[in-house]
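Blinded run. Sample ID left blank on purpose so nobody reads anything into the name before looking at the predicted structure. Input follows.
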Amino acid sequence: MTRMLSAVLDRLRGMVGSSAADGDDENGVRDDGPDLYECEGCGAVFISRPEECSNCEDDDFTNVGKFR
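Blinded prediction complete.
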């Protein structure tokens, strides 16, 4: 499960770009990014909370942190 989450996060970082390359805003505070939600049924990870999982149609999700 952890390996799958890591692979998803690596793919998302590659699509969006590394947060380390992003500059700080004028106040020196960075946006932490959107929340990540993991489907309780199959373990798929989504950037925003969907109504139901597109893989298994489950509607139970756990917030697993922020996308950076």
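Unblinding after everyone has recorded impressions. Helices lie at 2-16.
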